[in-house]
User: Which sequence fits this backbone?
DNA sequence: ACGATATTGTTGCAAATGCAACAGAAATAT
DNA sequence: ATATTTCTGTTGCATTTGCAACAATATCGT
């Protein structure tokens, strides 16, 4: 879902200047590493350059639950996640990640409406963070596994501009993302194949 | 969930000045009315002053589904909702509403880091819009009705600062919000009462 | 190239949830 | 003050979904 990129509409020079202005540093996080833990004290924001990262909630038993996944261009951090003691949140690297790291407060620091690219950046931040969540809610609000899957696939399809999709995350994590049991989801995918609603093999799915 | 207010940390004078700067007009919408329809052309933003409003998605059969509810201070509009043809979105007035209406683009117009209150406003907009959604996702990602309810109640309790809560929306809409069948939710509430996890009568619920 | 690890795919069974339908209470409108 | 609409509360039953457990592939790391 990559139209939700923080740098949309910025050219290379503007992007570079902006990165300097918000004082962002590119860092590498290896697969499996915890990138941020989102506590009330944390003030870090990240923009994913390359790789795949998850926002997970962690319950009292240490079980993790995928709340969101981030593709290149997506922005994440304590700024966008609830500062609460109901659940613990963290960002983890599902694959090796290149991430631009900077402080929350720098998103809206030294703004001046003359800096058109900074204004654009703030707009991107607002829209990308909230719209991505709202899509997720729309998916989760569907009452059956089939509808959840089809809603997810529709959004992905619209975003990729094709009806043949390669999932950005493993099926096992997709089940987590749409909040259903993996085996039940697999069963539903099989049924949808039988009913010629989709054709799929592994992570490659065509909507018919 | 009213710490997610667009005007947090602003005093009356700053608020008034800001309202002028973003050129916001207060409007009244009667109960049941459609406030905005969120199409790709719409560019309106609203801040709820008084009342109760819902973000609904509308499917092909015209059935509406509550994706979010807004309490005084909350901000909503096309800026925060996906611009997509997968589903249709609209904001509707559940009760009579007073709403500050202004254009998307004015949120980040004429910014200057000297205007501390405007910076604060933008920060509020970012955090309130994205955190409210993320809480909703956290609720929906719970796998049972009981856990969904308890997660919802925990957030509400934390926000209200009390363990005895009056729901801001009817139980029938709460079922929609946590995306479960209403009768199944009622059954679960009864069980939780029997097991002394909560005591409740109608919209008044105490967490034990 | 090989072993280790992660992911996909499948099933039987139990349990939770949704659906439909209705009665009663509460709130709202006139 | 009363009628109308909305909301709460309940039940039986069908269905979906989750859980547990396992085999078969695919992918990754060295």
Assistant:
């Amino acid at each position: 879902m990559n139209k939700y990129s923080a740098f949309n509409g910025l050219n290379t020079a503007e992007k570079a200047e902006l990165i300097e202005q918000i004082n962002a540093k590119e860092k590498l996080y290896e697969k499996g590493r915890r990138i941020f833990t989102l506590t009330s004290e944390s003030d870090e924001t990240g923009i994913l350059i390359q790789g795949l990262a998850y926002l997970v909630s962690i319950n009292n038993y240490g079980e993790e639950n995928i709340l969101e996944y981030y593709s290149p261009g997506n922005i994440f951090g304590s700024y966008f996640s609830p500062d609460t003691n109901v659940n613990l949140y963290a960002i983890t690297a599902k694959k090796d990640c290149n991430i631009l790291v900077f402080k929350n407060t720098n998103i809206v620091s030294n703004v001046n409406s003359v800096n058109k690219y900074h204004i654009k950046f703030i707009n991107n931040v607002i829209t990308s963070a909230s719209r991505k969540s709202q899509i997720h809610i729309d998916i989760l609000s569907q009452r059956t596994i089939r509808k959840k899957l089809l809603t997810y696939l529709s959004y992905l399809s619209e975003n990729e501009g094709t009806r043949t999709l390669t999932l950005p995350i493993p099926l096992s994590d997709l089940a987590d993302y749409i909040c259903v049991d993996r085996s039940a989801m697999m069963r539903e995918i099989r049924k949808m194949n039988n009913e010629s609603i989709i054709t799929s093999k592994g992570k490659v799915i065509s909507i018919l």
Summary: The interface with chain A takes residues 57, 65, 67-68, 79-87, 107-113, 119, 122-123, 125-127, 129-131, 133-138, 140-141, 143, 151, 154-155, 158, 179 of chain B (CB under 8 Å). The radius of gyration of chain B is 18 Å. The CA atoms of residues 143 and 149 of chain B lie 11 Å apart. The longest strand of chain B covers residues 44-50.
